[in-house]
Amino acid sequence: MKPTIVLVHGAFADASSWNGEVERLERLGYPVIAAANPLRGVASDGAYIKALVDSVDGPVVLVGHSYGGSVISAAALNDPKVQALVYIAAFLPDQGESAAELSAKFPGSTLGDTLQQVALPGGETDLYVKQDLFPKQFAADVPSAQARLMAVEQRPIAAVGLNGASGPGAWKNIPSWSLIPTGDKNIPPAAQEWMAQRAHAHTVVVPGASHAVLVSRPDKVTDIILSAVDATTK
C-alpha cells in the first residue's frame, strides 16, 4: 500500500500552494490530501491535522511548509501511522519553542517589518503580510503575476500561532527530511540548518529559492517527499 501524502501549508498561504506537488504525486499513483490548516495555534492546529491523519486508512507521510512544520510535529506525536516527516522551509520545534523564537535565533528574517495586524473580536490578533511587500518577502522567485495573486489570497495566522510554545518534537522518534531554500527571508536558512541538524534530518538545499519554494520548485519538493517515502516503505 502506498502511503497517503498529507500536505500542510503554513502561514500566509493556503492549500493551493501545493498544486505542483499534488499533480506530480497523483501522477505517480499516490493518494494525496492538501489539508486546510486552520492557522490558529500549534496545539489546536496539530489536533486538527491529527484527526485528519486518523481518518486515513494505512500509513501516512506528513509534509509541512513553514509554520506547518510545527503543526505536523504536533500532529505526529506518538502516532505509529506516520512513517516520515518532511519539512519544507519549515520549523522543527522542540518542547517550549515558538516559531518567532526560532526565527530570531539567527539573523536574516525580514518578516516582522512586513506584517499587518488585524484586531479580532475577543482580543486576538491576526497577522497578514502587507500585499505590496508580499512578493519580495515571501515569493521572490515566483512569477510576479502569481505572487501578486498569492498576496491577495493569503490566509492570516493568529499571532499566538507564531508566538505560542510547541510541545515535544515528533522528529525525535520519526525519520525526518528537511528542504532548505537559501533565499528564504521568512525563516533564516541558518535557523533551518540548525533545526535540521538537531533533528538529524536528511537535508536538501535549494540555492536561491524563496520561502515559497513549494510554489517555485515543486519538482525539488516532490523529490524530497519521494525520498522519504522510498526510505520508509522498503
Automatic annotation (TrEMBL):
Residue ranges constituting the AB hydrolase-1 domain according to the UniProt record: 5-223
GO MF entry, a single one: hydrolase activity
Keyword field contains Hydrolase: yes
Name of the protein in question: Alpha/beta hydrolase
Swiss-Prot/TrEMBL keywords: Hydrolase
Keyword match Cytoplasm: no
